[in-house]
Specification:
Layout (H helix, E strand, L loop, with lengths): L1 E3 L2 H13 L4 E6 L5 H13 L2 E6 L19 H10 L4 E3 L3 H4 L13 H4 L3 H4 L3 H16 L3 E5 L3 H13 L5 E5 L19 H6 L2 H14 L5 H15 L2 E5 L2 E2 L12 E10 L2 E10 L10
Parallel strand pairs: 1-4, 2-3, 2-5, 3-4, 5-6
Antiparallel strand pairs: 7-9, 8-9, 9-10
The site of pantoate has 10 residues, from strand 2 and helix 7.
């Protein structure tokens, strides 16, 4: 596996592969790779001739007081895992390479409709940092396709909207949520959970599953469902941030007639902020008004 850390060297390598007519798949990450990331690498591998993975802990998406400095950096283990999953190249630029004028952004990319809702409400500026760095990485690598996890559903929507709005020539692929046997969604931040918290954390996904089942069974009172969900998360021992029922296509509040839904949620547990979601399709005529 080739290891590069400058934009110039990366572009040279990509140009060679392109000249040979090869299709390029890209998986952007912040490292500390787990089974979820590696399933995205496998997805890219299955769809492309060459797979590039970036490892860059992006300072502009951490809000003040978040864990930028403490974010786990596990270079050796990450490279070993990427080799095992047949990645062709790892791109690990420095902060100076990506932000030569410093990380206080002069040019930024923002998707206003999605910026301040759900996770964006608790993490102001987070999605501006994500959209900006992903736009930069896509410009640097210029892949045919890029794979992002469905676990970060709002992030995936931000990227899909950005790519469409800016007419970027790349296919965005959503990779399925990888889960531990307990149902807990895999995440780098699960490393912050104590053994006791690991027992509690699966209650987040379990709650989403119950709500999805109730929706499918015809309970369409969204307020009642979300209030019960928040209560269940609290009772399990977490501090809920939000739990909502939204339209899968654009994350706007779900309403009568909608069939494609997503239930995103976030909760604090010890040092970790857990996020998860579940998508579901209701049969026509979709959501109904309920008393
Ligand atoms: O999901 C992540 O790991 C990051 O938000 C991403 C997409 C690599 C951008 O820094």
């Amino acid at each position: 596996m080739i290891e590069l850390n400058t934009i110039e060297a990366l572009r040279k390598q990509v140009a060679e592969w392109r000249q040979a007519g090869e299709c390029i798949g890209f998986v952007p990450t912040m490292g500390n790779l787990h089974g979820g990331h590696l399933s995205l690498v496998d997805e890219a591998r299955a769809r492309s001739d060459r797979v590039i993975v970036s490892i860059f802990v992006n300072p502009t998406q951490f809000t003040p007081g978040e864990d930028f400095e403490a974010y786990p950096r596990t270079w050796e283990a990450d490279c070993a895992a990427l080799r095992e999953h047949n990645s062709d190249l790892v791109f690990a630029p420095s902060v100076e390479e990506i932000y030569p004028d410093g990380p206080a952004l002069r040019t930024r990319v923002e998707v206003p409709a999605l910026n301040d809702i759900l996770c964006g409400a608790s993490r102001p500026g987070h999605f501006t940092g994500v959209a900006t760095v992903v736009a930069k990485l896509l410009n640097i690598v210029q892949p045919d396709l890029a794979v992002f996890g469905l676990k970060d559903y709002q992030q995936l929507m931000v990227i899909r909207h950005m790519v469409r709005d800016l007419s970027l020539p790349v296919e965005i692929v959503g990779g399925p949520v990888a889960r531990e046997p307990s149902g807990l969604a895999m995440s780098s931040r699960n490393a912050y959970l104590t053994d006791a918290e690991r027992e509690v954390a699966p209650a987040l996904y379990a709650t989403l599953c119950v709500i999805a089942e109730q929706l499918k069974a015809g309970e369409h009172n969204l307020e009642r469902l979300t209030a019960a969900g928040m209560k269940a998360i609290s009772q399990a021992g977490m501090k809920p941030d939000y739990l909502e029922i939204r339209r899968a296509v654009d994350l706007m509040p779900a309403g009568v007639g909608d069939t494609e839904l997503v239930i995103p949620a976030a909760a604090y547990l010890g040092r970790a902020r857990l996020i998860d979601n579940i998508r579901l399709t209701l049969p026509a005529p979709g959501l109904q008004a309920s008393a």
